[in-house]
Design a protein that fits this description.
Blueprint lengths: L33 H12 L3 H16 L4
């Protein structure tokens, strides 16, 4: 799915409580592991994890933070 979905339509998260990303597999999942998810998305898409972070952060803002 990562290859098919445009980055501009993605958010990244660490949702499953007992399915932490590699290299933390076997431990309880934590929000701080989201960087590992971004790195994997970057690897699959052939871009930097920084670009993934920038674009998905902006996507989050568009979805959840509205000017009041």
């Amino acid at each position: 799915m990562v290859r098919q979905v445009p980055l501009e339509n993605m958010l990244v998260e660490t949702d499953a409580p007992w399915l932490a990303p590699v290299p933390y597999r076997g431990k309880q999942n934590e929000p701080r592991y989201v960087l590992e998810v971004a790195k994997m998305v970057a690897e699959i898409k052939g871009i930097s994890w920084q670009e993934v972070a920038e674009v998905t952060t902006e996507n989050f803002r568009k979805c959840f933070l509205r000017a009041g």
